[in-house]
Protein backbone atom coordinates (compact mmCIF):
# COMPACT_ATOMS: atom_id res chain seq x y z
CA UNK A 1 0.00 0.00 0.00
CA UNK A 2 1.03 3.60 -0.48
CA UNK A 3 1.39 5.71 2.66
CA UNK A 4 2.39 9.25 3.38
CA UNK A 5 3.57 10.32 6.81
CA UNK A 6 3.70 14.01 7.70
CA UNK A 7 6.30 14.70 10.37
CA UNK A 8 9.59 12.80 10.70
CA UNK A 9 9.87 13.12 14.46
CA UNK A 10 9.83 10.25 16.83
CA UNK A 11 6.38 8.90 16.05
CA UNK A 12 6.43 9.62 12.31
CA UNK A 13 9.81 8.07 11.74
CA UNK A 14 9.15 4.88 13.67
CA UNK A 15 5.74 4.52 12.00
CA UNK A 16 7.18 5.13 8.53
CA UNK A 17 10.13 2.76 8.96
CA UNK A 18 7.97 -0.03 10.39
CA UNK A 19 5.30 0.24 7.70
CA UNK A 20 8.04 0.18 5.05
CA UNK A 21 9.56 -2.88 6.70
CA UNK A 22 6.21 -4.63 6.24
CA UNK A 23 6.47 -4.02 2.48
CA UNK A 24 4.52 -0.79 2.06
CA UNK A 25 5.68 2.11 -0.08
CA UNK A 26 6.17 4.97 2.38
CA UNK A 27 6.87 8.63 1.72
CA UNK A 28 7.73 10.80 4.71
CA UNK A 29 7.20 14.55 4.44
CA UNK A 30 8.94 17.02 6.71
CA UNK A 31 9.39 20.78 6.50
CA UNK A 32 12.95 20.58 7.87
CA UNK A 33 15.25 20.29 4.85
CA UNK A 34 18.32 19.39 6.90
CA UNK A 35 16.48 16.56 8.57
CA UNK A 36 15.20 15.24 5.24
CA UNK A 37 18.76 15.30 3.85
CA UNK A 38 20.05 13.40 6.87
CA UNK A 39 17.30 10.82 6.59
CA UNK A 40 17.96 10.32 2.88
CA UNK A 41 21.55 9.46 3.84
CA UNK A 42 20.18 6.89 6.28
CA UNK A 43 21.10 8.83 9.42
CA UNK A 44 18.52 8.90 12.19
CA UNK A 45 18.14 12.26 13.92
CA UNK A 46 16.99 10.49 17.08
CA UNK A 47 18.47 7.73 19.20
CA UNK A 48 16.22 4.70 19.09
CA UNK A 49 17.59 1.14 19.18
CA UNK A 50 17.08 -0.59 15.81
CA UNK A 51 15.73 2.44 13.97
CA UNK A 52 18.76 3.30 11.87
CA UNK A 53 19.04 -0.28 10.67
CA UNK A 54 15.37 -0.27 9.56
CA UNK A 55 15.88 3.08 7.94
CA UNK A 56 18.83 1.93 5.86
CA UNK A 57 17.35 -1.38 4.85
CA UNK A 58 14.14 0.20 3.59
CA UNK A 59 15.86 3.15 1.94
CA UNK A 60 18.01 0.66 0.02
CA UNK A 61 14.91 -1.33 -0.94
CA UNK A 62 13.30 1.89 -2.22
CA UNK A 63 10.28 1.45 0.03
CA UNK A 64 11.04 4.45 2.22
CA UNK A 65 11.57 7.95 0.87
CA UNK A 66 11.79 11.44 2.29
CA UNK A 67 10.71 14.77 0.87
CA UNK A 68 9.85 18.34 1.84
CA UNK A 69 7.23 18.49 -0.91
CA UNK A 70 3.73 18.30 0.60
CA UNK A 71 2.05 18.12 -2.82
CA UNK A 72 4.05 15.00 -3.66
CA UNK A 73 3.06 13.62 -0.27
CA UNK A 74 -0.65 14.12 -0.86
CA UNK A 75 -0.35 12.50 -4.30
CA UNK A 76 1.56 9.51 -2.97
CA UNK A 77 -0.46 7.82 -0.24
CA UNK A 78 -3.98 6.53 0.08
CA UNK A 79 -3.26 6.96 3.80
CA UNK A 80 -2.10 10.38 4.93
CA UNK A 81 -0.74 10.07 8.46
CA UNK A 82 -0.39 13.24 10.51
CA UNK A 83 2.46 12.67 12.97
CA UNK A 84 3.70 16.20 13.62
CA UNK A 85 4.34 17.61 17.09
CA UNK A 86 1.71 19.01 19.44
CA UNK A 87 3.88 21.07 21.79
CA UNK A 88 2.29 22.45 24.95
CA UNK A 89 0.92 25.99 24.76
CA UNK A 90 1.79 28.45 27.53
CA UNK A 91 -1.14 27.15 29.59
CA UNK A 92 -0.27 23.47 29.01
CA UNK A 93 -2.93 22.74 26.39
CA UNK A 94 -1.78 21.05 23.18
CA UNK A 95 -0.92 23.45 20.37
CA UNK A 96 -2.51 22.24 17.14
CA UNK A 97 -0.88 24.65 14.71
CA UNK A 98 1.33 22.02 13.06
CA UNK A 99 -1.49 19.47 12.82
CA UNK A 100 -3.82 21.99 11.24
CA UNK A 101 -1.19 23.26 8.87
CA UNK A 102 -0.78 19.69 7.55
CA UNK A 103 -4.59 19.51 7.20
CA UNK A 104 -4.43 22.68 5.14
CA UNK A 105 -1.71 21.23 2.87
CA UNK A 106 -3.81 18.13 2.36
CA UNK A 107 -6.83 20.27 1.45
CA UNK A 108 -4.75 22.32 -0.94
CA UNK A 109 -3.36 19.35 -2.87
CA UNK A 110 -6.11 16.76 -2.59
CA UNK A 111 -7.18 15.38 -5.97
CA UNK A 112 -8.70 11.99 -5.12
CA UNK A 113 -10.02 10.03 -2.13
CA UNK A 114 -7.68 9.88 0.87
CA UNK A 115 -7.82 8.55 4.41
CA UNK A 116 -6.36 11.16 6.76
CA UNK A 117 -5.10 9.54 9.95
CA UNK A 118 -4.22 11.56 13.06
CA UNK A 119 -1.37 9.76 14.80
CA UNK A 120 -0.12 12.65 16.94
CA UNK A 121 -1.47 12.85 20.47
CA UNK A 122 -4.28 15.34 20.03
CA UNK A 123 -7.11 16.60 22.24
CA UNK A 124 -10.60 15.22 21.83
CA UNK A 125 -12.29 17.02 18.95
CA UNK A 126 -9.13 17.46 16.86
CA UNK A 127 -10.24 15.10 14.08
CA UNK A 128 -13.29 17.34 13.65
CA UNK A 129 -10.99 20.36 13.39
CA UNK A 130 -8.83 18.57 10.84
CA UNK A 131 -11.90 17.71 8.80
CA UNK A 132 -13.16 21.30 9.02
CA UNK A 133 -9.77 22.70 7.93
CA UNK A 134 -9.58 20.37 4.92
CA UNK A 135 -13.21 21.21 4.02
CA UNK A 136 -12.51 24.94 4.25
CA UNK A 137 -9.40 24.65 2.07
CA UNK A 138 -11.27 22.56 -0.49
CA UNK A 139 -14.07 25.16 -0.50
CA UNK A 140 -11.54 27.89 -1.30
CA UNK A 141 -10.51 25.83 -4.32
CA UNK A 142 -14.18 25.17 -5.20
CA UNK A 143 -13.23 21.50 -5.12
CA UNK A 144 -15.39 18.60 -3.97
CA UNK A 145 -13.25 15.58 -3.17
CA UNK A 146 -14.07 12.80 -0.75
CA UNK A 147 -11.87 12.06 2.26
CA UNK A 148 -12.18 10.49 5.72
CA UNK A 149 -10.49 11.44 8.96
CA UNK A 150 -9.51 8.65 11.34
CA UNK A 151 -7.93 8.77 14.78
CA UNK A 152 -5.21 6.18 15.32
CA UNK A 153 -3.17 7.10 18.41
CA UNK A 154 0.21 5.50 18.97
CA UNK A 155 1.37 3.77 22.13
CA UNK A 156 5.11 3.53 21.52
CA UNK A 157 7.58 3.67 24.37
CA UNK A 158 10.87 5.40 23.66
CA UNK A 159 13.70 2.89 23.69
CA UNK A 160 11.32 0.05 22.76
CA UNK A 161 9.44 1.75 19.95
CA UNK A 162 10.23 -0.67 17.11
CA UNK A 163 9.15 -3.67 19.12
CA UNK A 164 6.03 -1.85 20.35
CA UNK A 165 5.09 -1.06 16.77
CA UNK A 166 5.86 -4.50 15.38
CA UNK A 167 4.12 -6.34 18.22
CA UNK A 168 1.42 -4.01 19.47
CA UNK A 169 -0.78 -4.77 22.49
CA UNK A 170 -3.59 -3.07 20.66
CA UNK A 171 -4.27 -0.81 17.72
CA UNK A 172 -6.91 1.76 18.49
CA UNK A 173 -8.83 3.06 15.50
CA UNK A 174 -11.40 5.77 15.85
CA UNK A 175 -13.65 6.22 12.87
CA UNK A 176 -17.23 7.07 12.17
CA UNK A 177 -17.11 5.22 8.84
CA UNK A 178 -16.89 1.38 8.62
CA UNK A 179 -15.14 1.63 5.23
CA UNK A 180 -12.02 3.18 6.79
CA UNK A 181 -11.97 0.60 9.57
CA UNK A 182 -11.63 -2.07 6.88
CA UNK A 183 -8.82 -0.17 5.15
CA UNK A 184 -6.87 0.24 8.38
CA UNK A 185 -7.43 -3.40 9.25
CA UNK A 186 -5.78 -4.37 5.98
CA UNK A 187 -2.87 -1.98 6.61
CA UNK A 188 -2.22 -3.27 10.13
CA UNK A 189 -2.85 -6.91 9.33
CA UNK A 190 0.87 -7.88 9.15
CA UNK A 191 1.33 -6.65 12.73
CA UNK A 192 -1.71 -8.36 14.19
CA UNK A 193 -1.63 -11.77 12.49
CA UNK A 194 -1.82 -13.93 15.56
CA UNK A 195 -4.67 -12.19 17.26
CA UNK A 196 -7.12 -9.49 16.40
CA UNK A 197 -5.72 -6.56 18.29
CA UNK A 198 -7.65 -3.85 16.61
CA UNK A 199 -10.07 -1.95 18.79
CA UNK A 200 -12.43 0.08 16.63
CA UNK A 201 -14.48 2.86 18.15
CA UNK A 202 -15.80 6.34 17.43
CA UNK A 203 -13.31 9.14 16.81
CA UNK A 204 -13.71 11.01 20.11
CA UNK A 205 -13.39 7.88 22.25
CA UNK A 206 -10.22 6.99 20.39
CA UNK A 207 -8.75 10.44 20.95
CA UNK A 208 -9.54 10.22 24.65
CA UNK A 209 -8.15 6.66 24.89
CA UNK A 210 -4.66 7.93 24.21
CA UNK A 211 -4.79 10.47 27.03
CA UNK A 212 -6.54 8.01 29.32
CA UNK A 213 -3.73 5.47 28.89
CA UNK A 214 -0.95 7.93 29.67
CA UNK A 215 -2.86 9.61 32.47
CA UNK A 216 -3.58 6.24 34.09
CA UNK A 217 0.10 5.25 33.96
CA UNK A 218 1.18 8.64 35.32
CA UNK A 219 -1.39 8.26 38.10
CA UNK A 220 0.05 4.89 39.09
CA UNK A 221 3.50 6.45 39.35
CA UNK A 222 2.40 9.50 41.32
CA UNK A 223 0.36 7.29 43.62
CA UNK A 224 3.42 5.17 44.37
CA UNK A 225 5.57 8.24 44.86
CA UNK A 226 3.06 9.63 47.32
CA UNK A 227 3.10 6.34 49.23
CA UNK A 228 6.89 6.26 49.13
CA UNK A 229 6.97 9.62 50.85
CA UNK A 230 4.55 8.31 53.44
CA UNK A 231 6.53 5.08 53.91
CA UNK A 232 9.65 7.12 54.56
CA UNK A 233 7.93 8.98 57.35
CA UNK A 234 6.30 5.88 58.80
CA UNK A 235 9.44 3.74 58.89
CA UNK A 236 8.16 1.37 56.17
CA UNK A 237 9.96 0.22 53.02
CA UNK A 238 8.09 1.09 49.83
CA UNK A 239 9.91 -1.65 47.90
CA UNK A 240 8.36 -4.27 50.19
CA UNK A 241 5.00 -2.56 49.84
CA UNK A 242 5.41 -2.57 46.04
CA UNK A 243 5.92 -6.32 46.00
CA UNK A 244 3.09 -6.75 48.45
CA UNK A 245 0.54 -4.97 46.32
CA UNK A 246 1.87 -5.88 42.85
CA UNK A 247 1.12 -9.53 43.47
CA UNK A 248 -2.58 -8.68 43.39
CA UNK A 249 -3.43 -9.14 39.71
CA UNK A 250 -5.95 -6.32 39.92
CA UNK A 251 -3.05 -4.00 40.74
CA UNK A 252 -0.17 -5.67 38.90
CA UNK A 253 3.58 -5.06 38.99
CA UNK A 254 3.80 -2.68 36.05
CA UNK A 255 4.40 1.03 36.50
CA UNK A 256 4.42 1.03 40.27
CA UNK A 257 8.11 1.78 40.63
CA UNK A 258 8.60 4.77 42.90
CA UNK A 259 11.34 7.16 41.88
CA UNK A 260 12.38 10.76 41.41
CA UNK A 261 9.37 11.54 39.22
CA UNK A 262 8.25 10.79 35.68
CA UNK A 263 9.63 12.77 32.75
CA UNK A 264 9.75 12.53 28.98
CA UNK A 265 7.79 14.13 26.21
CA UNK A 266 4.51 12.36 26.97
CA UNK A 267 3.36 11.96 30.56
CA UNK A 268 3.99 15.52 31.79
CA UNK A 269 2.58 17.05 28.61
CA UNK A 270 -0.42 14.74 28.29
CA UNK A 271 -1.51 14.93 31.94
CA UNK A 272 -1.38 18.72 31.70
CA UNK A 273 -3.17 18.84 28.36
CA UNK A 274 -5.98 16.61 29.61
CA UNK A 275 -6.39 18.73 32.72
CA UNK A 276 -6.55 21.89 30.54
CA UNK A 277 -9.10 20.21 28.24
CA UNK A 278 -11.18 19.44 31.32
CA UNK A 279 -11.08 23.11 32.23
CA UNK A 280 -12.33 24.01 28.78
CA UNK A 281 -15.30 21.77 29.50
CA UNK A 282 -15.84 23.66 32.76
CA UNK A 283 -14.70 20.64 34.77
CA UNK A 284 -12.00 20.61 37.41
CA UNK A 285 -9.91 17.45 36.96
CA UNK A 286 -8.90 17.16 40.61
CA UNK A 287 -7.09 13.85 40.31
CA UNK A 288 -5.10 14.85 37.21
CA UNK A 289 -4.04 18.10 38.84
CA UNK A 290 -2.89 16.16 41.88
CA UNK A 291 -0.96 13.67 39.71
CA UNK A 292 0.93 16.56 38.20
CA UNK A 293 1.52 18.35 41.52
CA UNK A 294 2.82 15.15 43.14
CA UNK A 295 5.19 14.64 40.23
CA UNK A 296 6.57 18.17 40.40
CA UNK A 297 7.25 17.72 44.10
CA UNK A 298 8.86 14.34 43.46
CA UNK A 299 11.26 15.80 40.93
CA UNK A 300 12.64 18.07 43.68
CA UNK A 301 13.02 15.26 46.18
CA UNK A 302 16.63 14.32 45.45
CA UNK A 303 17.67 17.94 45.76
CA UNK A 304 15.82 18.25 49.07
CA UNK A 305 17.57 15.15 50.39
CA UNK A 306 20.97 16.40 49.28
CA UNK A 307 20.32 19.80 50.75
CA UNK A 308 19.34 18.29 54.08
CA UNK A 309 22.44 16.11 54.08
CA UNK A 310 24.70 19.11 53.53
CA UNK A 311 22.93 21.16 56.22
CA UNK A 312 21.24 23.42 53.68
CA UNK A 313 24.57 24.60 52.27
CA UNK A 314 25.45 23.19 48.86
CA UNK A 315 27.55 26.14 47.74
CA UNK A 316 30.93 24.93 46.52
CA UNK A 317 29.93 21.27 46.73
CA UNK A 318 30.34 18.94 43.76
CA UNK A 319 27.68 16.34 43.07
CA UNK A 320 28.26 13.38 40.78
CA UNK A 321 25.19 12.56 38.70
CA UNK A 322 24.59 9.18 37.09
CA UNK A 323 21.97 9.37 34.38
CA UNK A 324 20.69 12.35 32.40
CA UNK A 325 18.07 10.80 30.10
CA UNK A 326 14.51 10.69 31.45
CA UNK A 327 14.73 6.90 31.34
CA UNK A 328 17.19 4.25 30.06
CA UNK A 329 17.70 3.44 26.36
CA UNK A 330 17.06 6.93 25.12
CA UNK A 331 19.02 10.17 24.91
CA UNK A 332 15.84 12.17 25.49
CA UNK A 333 16.12 14.69 28.32
CA UNK A 334 12.76 16.37 27.87
CA UNK A 335 11.23 17.08 31.30
CA UNK A 336 13.86 14.74 32.78
CA UNK A 337 14.22 14.69 36.59
CA UNK A 338 17.99 15.12 36.03
CA UNK A 339 17.31 18.63 34.76
CA UNK A 340 15.29 19.64 37.81
CA UNK A 341 18.09 18.34 40.02
CA UNK A 342 20.96 19.95 38.11
CA UNK A 343 19.21 23.30 37.86
CA UNK A 344 18.44 23.31 41.60
CA UNK A 345 22.04 22.36 42.41
CA UNK A 346 23.38 25.15 40.24
CA UNK A 347 20.99 27.65 41.80
CA UNK A 348 22.35 26.57 45.20
CA UNK A 349 25.94 27.14 44.04
CA UNK A 350 26.92 23.48 43.60
CA UNK A 351 28.81 21.93 40.69
CA UNK A 352 27.71 18.84 38.78
CA UNK A 353 29.84 16.06 37.29
CA UNK A 354 27.44 14.10 35.11
CA UNK A 355 27.63 10.86 33.17
CA UNK A 356 25.06 9.16 30.95
CA UNK A 357 25.75 6.32 28.50
CA UNK A 358 24.02 8.12 25.59
CA UNK A 359 22.63 11.53 26.55
CA UNK A 360 25.93 13.46 26.90
CA UNK A 361 25.59 15.21 23.58
CA UNK A 362 22.01 16.12 24.36
CA UNK A 363 23.09 17.61 27.69
CA UNK A 364 25.72 19.68 25.88
CA UNK A 365 23.13 20.85 23.38
CA UNK A 366 20.74 21.94 26.14
CA UNK A 367 23.18 23.50 28.59
CA UNK A 368 26.22 24.37 26.46
CA UNK A 369 29.63 24.89 28.06
CA UNK A 370 29.36 26.00 31.66
CA UNK A 371 31.82 26.06 34.51
CA UNK A 372 29.51 24.24 36.91
CA UNK A 373 28.87 21.25 34.59
CA UNK A 374 31.47 18.61 33.78
CA UNK A 375 30.34 15.92 31.39
CA UNK A 376 32.45 12.95 32.45
CA UNK A 377 33.50 10.15 30.13
CA UNK A 378 32.55 7.36 32.48
CA UNK A 379 30.57 6.67 35.63
CA UNK A 380 33.85 6.45 37.52
CA UNK A 381 35.17 9.72 36.17
CA UNK A 382 31.96 11.49 37.28
CA UNK A 383 32.75 10.46 40.86
CA UNK A 384 36.25 11.84 40.91
CA UNK A 385 36.49 14.59 43.53
CA UNK A 386 32.71 14.71 44.04
CA UNK A 387 31.17 15.09 47.49
CA UNK A 388 28.22 12.78 46.88
CA UNK A 389 26.58 10.69 44.17
CA UNK A 390 23.00 11.09 42.91
CA UNK A 391 21.48 8.44 40.61
CA UNK A 392 18.67 9.65 38.42
CA UNK A 393 18.31 7.11 35.59
CA UNK A 394 18.29 3.33 36.03
CA UNK A 395 20.70 2.46 33.21
CA UNK A 396 21.80 -1.17 33.28
CA UNK A 397 25.44 -0.24 33.86
CA UNK A 398 24.57 1.45 37.17
CA UNK A 399 22.88 -1.62 38.58
CA UNK A 400 25.86 -3.34 40.16
CA UNK A 401 28.65 -0.83 40.57
CA UNK A 402 31.89 -1.25 42.47
CA UNK A 403 30.83 0.19 45.83
CA UNK A 404 34.40 0.17 47.18
CA UNK A 405 35.38 2.37 44.26
CA UNK A 406 32.42 4.70 44.91
CA UNK A 407 33.46 5.01 48.53
CA UNK A 408 37.07 5.79 47.74
CA UNK A 409 36.24 8.34 45.03
CA UNK A 410 33.67 10.34 47.00
CA UNK A 411 34.61 13.04 49.49
CA UNK A 412 31.60 12.30 51.68
CA UNK A 413 30.61 8.76 50.83
CA UNK A 414 26.89 9.26 50.36
CA UNK A 415 24.69 7.84 47.60
CA UNK A 416 21.31 9.38 46.77
CA UNK A 417 19.45 6.82 44.70
CA UNK A 418 16.44 8.21 42.84
CA UNK A 419 15.55 4.81 41.36
CA UNK A 420 15.88 2.39 44.29
CA UNK A 421 18.47 0.29 42.50
CA UNK A 422 20.16 -1.34 45.48
CA UNK A 423 19.53 -3.20 48.68
CA UNK A 424 20.11 -0.55 51.38
CA UNK A 425 21.71 -2.97 53.85
CA UNK A 426 24.13 -4.19 51.17
CA UNK A 427 25.26 -0.68 50.21
CA UNK A 428 25.71 0.38 53.83
CA UNK A 429 28.02 -2.58 54.40
CA UNK A 430 30.59 -0.72 52.28
CA UNK A 431 30.54 2.20 54.69
CA UNK A 432 28.41 4.31 52.37
CA UNK A 433 25.51 6.46 53.49
CA UNK A 434 22.54 5.47 51.34
CA UNK A 435 19.41 7.47 50.73
CA UNK A 436 16.73 6.08 48.43
CA UNK A 437 13.04 6.78 47.78
CA UNK A 438 10.58 5.63 50.41
CA UNK A 439 12.95 3.30 52.23
CA UNK A 440 13.42 5.17 55.50
CA UNK A 441 16.61 7.25 55.62
C1 LIG B 1 4.91 6.73 27.46
C2 LIG B 1 3.95 5.51 27.48
O1 LIG B 1 4.49 4.49 28.31
C3 LIG B 1 3.73 4.97 26.07
O2 LIG B 1 2.78 3.93 26.10
C4 LIG B 1 3.19 6.12 25.19
O3 LIG B 1 2.99 5.71 23.86
C5 LIG B 1 4.18 7.27 25.20
O4 LIG B 1 4.38 7.71 26.55
C6 LIG B 1 3.64 8.38 24.34
O5 LIG B 1 2.59 8.94 24.68
O6 LIG B 1 4.20 8.65 23.28
P1 LIG B 1 7.57 7.05 27.35
O7 LIG B 1 7.30 8.49 27.63
O8 LIG B 1 8.49 6.67 26.26
O9 LIG B 1 6.18 6.29 27.01
O10 LIG B 1 8.18 6.44 28.67
P2 LIG B 1 7.75 5.44 29.84
O11 LIG B 1 8.53 4.21 29.72
O12 LIG B 1 6.30 5.31 29.94
O13 LIG B 1 8.29 6.25 31.12
C7 LIG B 1 7.81 7.54 31.47
C8 LIG B 1 8.40 8.02 32.76
O14 LIG B 1 7.82 7.35 33.88
C9 LIG B 1 9.90 7.83 32.90
O15 LIG B 1 10.47 9.03 33.42
C10 LIG B 1 10.03 6.69 33.88
O16 LIG B 1 11.22 6.75 34.62
C11 LIG B 1 8.84 6.92 34.76
N1 LIG B 1 8.37 5.70 35.46
C12 LIG B 1 7.86 4.66 34.75
C13 LIG B 1 8.41 5.63 36.84
O17 LIG B 1 8.86 6.58 37.53
N2 LIG B 1 7.94 4.51 37.46
C14 LIG B 1 7.41 3.48 36.79
O18 LIG B 1 6.98 2.48 37.43
C15 LIG B 1 7.39 3.54 35.38
Keywords:
oxidoreductase; UDP-Glc/GDP-Man_DH_C_sf; 3 domains; six-stranded parallel beta sheet; Rossmann fold; 441 residues; 14 strands; binds uridine-5'-diphosphate-glucuronic acid; elongated; alpha/beta; N-(1-d-carboxylethyl)-l-norvaline Dehydrogenase, domain 2; NAD
Strand content: 5-15%
Low-confidence stretches: none
Main sheet summary: 6 strands, parallel
Helix fraction by DSSP (H/I, runs of at least 4): 40-55%
Question: Briefly, what CATH class of the largest domain?
Answer: Alpha Beta
How many domains, in number, for the residues? 3
CATH topology (fold) name of the largest domain: Rossmann fold
**Strand order across the biggest sheet?**
3-2-1-4-5-6
CATH superfamily of the largest domain: NAD(P)-binding Rossmann-like Domain
Q: Termini distance? A: 59 Å
Radius of gyration: 24 Å
* Ligands: uridine-5'-diphosphate-glucuronic acid
List the helices and strands and how they pair.
Layout: E1 2-6, H1 10-21, E2 25-29, H2 33-40, H3 51-60, E3 64-67, H4 70-76, E4 79-82, H5 97-109, E5 114-118, H6 126-140, E6 147-151, H7 161-166, E7 171-174, H8 178-188, E8 198-201, H9 203-234, H10 238-246, H11 267-280, H12 286-299, H13 301-309, E9 318-322, H14 337-347, E10 351-355, H15 360-367, E11 373-375, H16 379-383, E12 388-391, H17 403-409, E13 414-417, H18 424-428, E14 433-435
Parallel strand pairs: 1-2, 1-4, 2-3, 4-5, 5-6, 7-8, 9-10, 9-12, 10-11, 12-13, 13-14
Helix pairs in contact: 1-3, 4-5, 5-6, 9-11, 9-12, 11-12
The chain binds uridine-5'-diphosphate-glucuronic acid (UGA).
The site of uridine-5'-diphosphate-glucuronic acid has 20 residues, from α9.
